[in-house]
């Protein structure tokens, strides 16, 4: 509240820079370092905050409906003074919580080290020196130096600016860049009109500015919004599936539990024990270790990715990576080396030309937009003498104009405006052309020639940019509107060779059933040329211009058939991604520019590189420390493994437990006693959870990783029905044998059934984890040994002295052998069913 008041009392946009700086006790040369130290938000002592973080992390392991059910059961058991039950439930809770906590902590620690590399820095002026500090360390009164690609670190008042455009979509929803200018704005004007100010979280599209930071952190507009909304994390398709599935199970469990309670009470059993019995059963049905399995699979996946120099910013991105079936990529640096080299400077008549060389150099030398490989290449060129030149003005590059203008001056030469950019966009603003002999001619007569040249260069694999100029001595300060009536000079041919292994990389992705689509701002001809080189059909290409004329629906209809999108504007990149998603694809996007940020955000998996602009890095889910598509293939495999192992866990919980519940309900009707004591049910659950957890690290058969797979709840339901039914059949067989053949006492009955159900669950785990014959698929070490250990434990427990306190008894050998035989036949039946089921549902 107080903060709001202070903001209302400080409408800095309606004040002059001097007033604001006076009030903030700062100056244009920046704060002193001692001032900065005083203004830094006081850190909570690092020790304590680390401890608090750990506690939070631990607590966060319990914040899902499944563990809540466990907690509820625990309280209930304690209330009934059933201490064995309580102890077992508590162990289960603790085990799942600890494991999740431990794994996640290990993973976050590894990730944090890498994330430190990712810290976005802001340039500030302090004690009259320019320095780069982590974005969060900007303090009130800091003088900010902003340039294209930066994320703005604070709410600030602009002091000076040059062609400064900011994208404020995060705050205003307006995706068109808003132009900033200096000067006072009425205090009551809405945020969108405060052109003299910038706001935290928005980003610079082009140009440069200095500004004084007025509000930081939670005091900013962004901070207010975040506090209000608690930034709603979007769920991935996978998470949605899991959650829906979890709720479905809960509903079913509750329903069946209700029926069981009813039957038991109706048949005259003790009401409270019946409730506890039903509660224990519904715990059995719920995949209570699912959260832990998920965290473990994901975080160990993230760790393995880190070893391959991939930083996973958002864990769930790994799942999406596995499910991804279309990968969109920009061109420069992904397909190509990204190290652009200048090949030549060519005039219309085809001659190497030194004036073009000089002008291109001047333009690149003085431009101040965000770093791009073309200007780097041009600046590297040794050049004829440019001493004596001075920069007068600039209009930075943007992805709509695709041009960049610089005004330079030199004694005796007046002021010259030099513009370079995409060839089309240069021709657009030129009406004359300069010949080698110095003549100026109408450009119109050369349009065909230029087109042909361009085709020729592109076919040879060159990226061509155009250069033009005009004399602006009369009015050397320019705006975008001055880009007209210029004199065309010629071409700069640039070379950006494709990566040597790009064909194999793309082939590799294709083998994994991920389709690559190229979305580039570059020219159609070049894109075609590249398509041919990497083995994509050059026919499946569409240009940004054509996209413009299409409605969203029309794009959706078309998007599948196209492999290359050329000459696109930034907003079209996002449109394409969304259209692909509407077609039902899970879409990845790789990009590193300002123009990629919205597409990165829209994609299911956004991938960027470490030297990308801040906005792109911020928007991405994964960061590659080296821009190699090949590592993505490893990531895709990780994602698919995660998915498969999660699915295994679900399969096993479903088939074994669902059948169990059914059988229990049945058994309750005709047995005069409870088929298992609540504590025994919990113990069964606990024991089978141990191997189930190690599924997280299980090996996965190669054939299961071949294509992206989706969460398919319909399939799960069928799977559950079939295997549940089968397991019930065997349960009833077991009951019948125990009651009619062995005339078992309640203790023997329960012990026999305990052994049978734990062992069948483990055997069926071996069966279900693969589609091959179970012994033909190699198992994860952990899984194998933990299963063996549990089997031994189960066989030993009844013969231990403490077994009576658990309600077990030493069963006769023939009962034991019969139970084991039933389990083996059951596993064999599972093999058969599995084969038929997978084939029939072709999943
Ligand atoms: N600094 C610059 N100076 C002049 N022209 C430029 C500059 N940057 C880009 N262009 C022009 O704009 C076009 C589009 O830019 P760019 O190729 O970077 O887009 P993109 O979508 O990021 O492409 P890519 O897929 O290669 O990453 C370029 O082909 C070039 O003609
Ligand atoms: Mg790019």
TrEMBL record:
Record field: transmembrane: 55-80, 86-102, 248-266, 272-298, 649-671, 719-742, 782-800, 806-829
Alphabetical list of Pfam families matching this protein: Cation_ATPase, Cation_ATPase_C, E1-E2_ATPase
Residue ranges occupied by any Cation-transporting P-type ATPase N-terminal domain in the UniProt entry: 11-82
InterPro entries for the chain: ATPase_P-typ_cation-transptr_C, ATPase_P-typ_cation-transptr_N, ATPase_P-typ_cyto_dom_N, ATPase_P-typ_TM_dom_sf, ATPase_P-typ_transduc_dom_A_sf, ATPase_P-type_domA, HAD-like_sf, HAD_sf
Listed SUPFAM superfamilies: Calcium ATPase, transduction domain A, Calcium ATPase, transmembrane domain M, HAD-like
Signal peptide (residue range): none
Location in the cell: Cell inner membrane
Membrane topology recorded in Swiss-Prot or TrEMBL: Multi-pass membrane protein
Enzyme Commission number, as recorded: 7.2.2.14
Purpose: Mediates magnesium influx to the cytosol.
Xref: NCBIfam families: ATPase-IIIB_Mg, ATPase_P-type
Family annotation (PANTHER family): CALCIUM-TRANSPORTING ATPASE (PTHR42861)
Similarity annotation: Belongs to the cation transport ATPase (P-type) (TC 3.A.3) family. Type IIIB subfamily.
Name recorded for this polypeptide: Magnesium-transporting ATPase, P-type 1
Protein source organism: Negadavirga shengliensis
Gene: mgtA
